[in-house]
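hiii, so i know i said id send this last week but things got crazy w the move. better late than never?? heres the sequnce for the chain we talked about at the cafe, plus the structure i predicted for it. fair warning i was half asleep when i ran it
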Amino acid sequence: MGLDAGHGGGNIGTAGAMGIAEKQLALNMTLLVKAALEKEGAKVITTRMSDVFVDNQARLYNYRQLAPDLLLSIHMNSSINPVDVKGTANYYKYPFCEPLNRFLHNRLLETGLADFKNNANFNFILNMPTEMPSALIETLFLSYPEDEIRILDENFRLVLTEKIVQGLKDFLQDAGK
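okay and structure toks below
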């Protein structure tokens, strides 16, 4: 299992009104998901375990070399419209990645976050490999004040973690049919 914590180092990603950088929240979420998956017996490969910059080409190269069965990249979204744009979204490039993203997205919707959809044909570099199913998880919008308040709550991050793990289990169970 490959887990990518979005951004890092000098690349802060986005930030909400409270000023917490996406890179910090993405790393925190990734470490929570890593711990939960390892508790389930999964072998997890991560892009980063601390606040360091890793070039996107290097991320792609490393995952292609290490060849995990699945690849998740965890982020928070942002919009110039902090009033109306909110919710959780998944993004993927190729149709074979749709089931993984659908199962993850359906579980994330169980948190009560708005539906910003499961989106196809997305050109993110970690959605490019065809060697493994991949998912870009935009957990929520840091630019939307209510979403930001939720992600700053450690208990909510644990709920998101649980839903990501459940979504992965759903996908693997379905793939095993």
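btw The helical segments are 22-39, 56-66, 98-109, 145-151, 154-175. thought thatd interest u
miss u guys!!
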